[in-house]
Amino acid sequence: GIQVEQSPPDLILQEGANSTLRCNFSDSVNNLQWFHQNPWGQLINLFYIPSGTKQNGRLSATTVATERYSLLYISSSQTTDSGVYFCAVEEGSQGNLIFGKGTKLSVKP
Amino acid sequence: NAGVTQTPKFRVLKTGQSMTLLCAQDMNHEYMYWYRQDPGMGLRLIHYSVGEGTTAKGEVPDGYNVSRLKKQNFLLGLESAAPSQTSVYFCASSYWDGYEQYFGPGTRLTVT
Known about the structure:
The structure holds 2 protein chains of 2 kinds.
Chain A: E1 4-7, E2 10-14, E3 19-25, E4 32-37, E5 43-48, E6 52-56, E7 59-64, E8 69-74, E9 83-91, E10 96-99, E11 103-108
Parallel strand pairs in A: 2-11
Antiparallel strand pairs in A: 1-3, 3-8, 4-5, 4-9, 6-7, 7-8, 9-10, 9-11
Chain B: E1 4-7, E2 10-13, E3 19-25, E4 31-37, E5 43-49, E6 56-57, E7 65-67, E8 73-78, E9 87-94, E10 102-103, E11 107-111
């Protein structure tokens, strides 16, 4: 099956810093999503981005499908950005999402 | 528009007991999914449904059963709970495959 690898596994930032999270996947996909899991466990949809670039406020994402990777950019980080960021890709044609192990982000005040 | 809701939010079971988790969505989505999340890991697919009356196995289906009698509801059953099923369970739905999946708030299940 498809493999999804995220890096780095852990990231500690000072408030106001910028960061880039990476997601590599082993096969072509027709769906890629980024999620933020907050400290209360809630999964929040950040981006649906099988290809191209999208921006939403301080967050943006780019997926280069031909090279099998996606990047999530966080600018001017805030303490509320803390949590785990997951990349997930769809395997096959049944909509099954395969999740990476996540990047745990801690933003210090 | 509530999106995806899950019932209950928390549950503690003794080994061997049974229970049913309910997922409901009001977005008229065709596809629904049940995932589990264990500590320090991403989510893994248990079962899914591509429409009313259909179900299929995912990556980790053993010990679980599902039913989709109505389009808006997807039920996950544990017939004889085991400690290995202690986890957080998430339900999700999407309009079709290849479309964005929307997740419920999760159910935290502990089996003692």
